[in-house]
Amino acid sequence: MDDVIVRATGLRKTYVSEGSETPALRGIDLAVARGEFVFLAGPSGSGKTTLLSILGCVLSADSGSLTIHGVDVSRFDSTAQARFRREQIGFVFQRFHLFSALSAVDNVCIPLDLIGWPRDRARERAFQLLRSVGLEEKSSARVNRLSTGQRQRVAFARALAADPPLILADEPTASLDAAAGANAMAMLRSLCRESGTTVIVVTHDSRIFSMADRILHVADGRLVESSES
Fold first, then answer.
1. Hey, which of 22, 41, 103, 214 has its CA 20 to 30 A from 185?
2. What is the pLDDT of residues 159-188, one digit of tens each?
């Protein structure tokens, strides 16, 4: 595959609790190219959320290798993981994880503040992104006064703020109805197509499967199938 942004080989992860071992990943191999829109699908407990967490440098695999945007992150310690994910990965969470007392623009500025952008430049970038998701007129509104769909768009803008090569989304349509979910994913795909950003989405929502370039099916800690949408 040309221009691979994410390459994982033999990823394994086992959770240990009170002497009991629960394998979560049993040797995952995958490669995702620049600009791909890829879904991870599978039942609860299949390992897809663990896989997303490892790809996001939130968890470390027990074994195997992982390269993201040309960087081998397999042996990063927690400090290096935190720095890398701030600079190279955007996140969209199921429940958005926005700061409800802050304005939309201030929420979008947060990842830029964390990597040291000057405040004026960060706000200019945030306004630009809110305009691109149709929320220019809501930029000064506190997010607790926005609709669910509008908060989702703020979350998309925040994920794109630092222009990361990779965005990871965990059940991004779970809080939306069918029409709103489809519209939100179409918007995310369009924005990422323009920038060449790679997107990996964990989802149970079969209503949006047609939007994926590929669907990777996960079961019992393994990739069992890959299909074109």
1. 103
2. 999 999 999 999 998 888 888 888 889 999
